[in-house]
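[09:14] KT: can someone run the structure on this one? pasting the chain below
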Amino acid sequence: MQLIGFNFTKISAEKTPQFKLGSAINTNIEFTGFEKEKIEILKDADALRVSFKFSISYIEEEKKEDKNGEILFEGNLVLSATKEESKDMFKSWKKKEFPGQVRLFLFNIILKKCSTKALSLEEDIAIPYHIPMPQLQAKPADQPQK
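[09:31] RB: done, structure tokens below
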């Protein structure tokens, strides 16, 4: 199975005015659709479109139902899969899930594409980073001479 396309259909970021440091962070990946895609250049393989929603919610510790902010991505992945892989995926999709290795493959792609954009959006709307950003330090030999 190979990734042959990825696109976002929706990107949203919001923060409440009373946002507090120390909010709990919940992430969620949900698959919202799965269908065959028609791509002429694929002769011996199937093209499959997987729709997804990826969200990061910032929730107040004391009141679990109150969101302090949310970053949301919706999009599609287009995959090239063998006829056998395609058959297995459609069989498991009847239960709205994917086989373990396929699900892991999809999660990794979605996390890779969305996490870097999420960091940028957090900075844009002034949500404190939930991942410590590395700091470069000058070595003593690199400091200017006095």
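[09:33] KT: thanks! The mean pLDDT is 83.
[09:34] RB: yep, looked fine to me
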